[in-house]
Amino acid sequence: MARQQLAEFLNCSSTEVFFTGSATEADNLAIFGVIKAAQRKAVVKPHIITSAIEHPAVLGPARFLEELGEIETTYLPVGREGIVKASDVEKAIKPNTVLVSIMYANNEIGTIQPIAKISQLIKKKNSLIHNSKFLILFHTDAVQAANYLDCDVKKLDVDLLTLSGHKVYGPKGVGVLYVKKGIVIEPIMFGGHQEQSLRPGTENVAGIVGFGEAINRIKNQESRIKSNEKIKKLRDKLLDGILTKISGTYLNGSRENRLPNNANISFKGVEGESILMALDQKGIAVSTGSACASGSLEPSHVLMALGLSHQQAHGSIRFTLGRYTTEDEIDYVLGTLPEVIERLREISPLK
Ligand code: PLP
Q: Is the C-beta atom of 111 inside 6 A of ligand 1?
């Protein structure tokens, strides 16, 4: 049932849905799985193309395999808007390219990548490869996109796609990797024969059932569009309010090609961590960098890839709205934040 619910959401067959323990695991399975399959076919030093702003669940395995000398990796840059250019993907393709992994929407700045366009270019390249032992596969991490964007794998024309249960109001500890029929990837764990032997180990049944139900609730495109509009309206009120009420502020990433729930803003002359703590005391939860990197003092790799300085990156915070965000909450933030920033700027050594 849950597998069928996921398959309907993705517009694929239920045999193409593989449950994992998280999206991190699904991303790792996609990268290692494709590389190990290429190595089995004796591809010499397979090449991966990814972007500089991917989630660590994609960058981590790519860097690991690169450090071991097993693969070559191209990390595509992004411009100030945080968008990967499809033409850059095309230019980066080499004879040993086996995988392109570009996220659908970014977790820190919410920018939406031109997945269908990139896919078209890859498919065109594949059609020109004759007598090849392998084709270039395309993976997208759609974890952040699932709530807001169409994840029809036929329209996106991807070979592999990752989802996470808890990013669609489902339970934690469950992910999905879509693997297009006919695509052979190797497992990264060995044992039983669950999930067609691609992901052995007893499944998290409760998590999977919850994931299916959560996905079922967001699959209706019409209600999704309505909900997106409501969230976007609130986000724009927050964003415009901050940008006009507080000087020295600017939006990170694209305004247009952006998830409706994301506002990532830099504040001149203040530390993001200080803003986060001050807002926390007022009952407002924001983040600096990605949730996975919180606790790290390194500036966000995503903001650095946009061309921000260390100081600018450290002075940024992310507001994430959701299905249950209310206008009163936005008004409360707009009423609270200017005073917080003013106070922090007065005592800031960064002035
Ligand atoms: N990919 C993206 C884009 C994410 O935002 C996250 C989590 O925030 C993950 C992967 C990892 O998901 P999980 O927590 O299910 O491992």
A: no
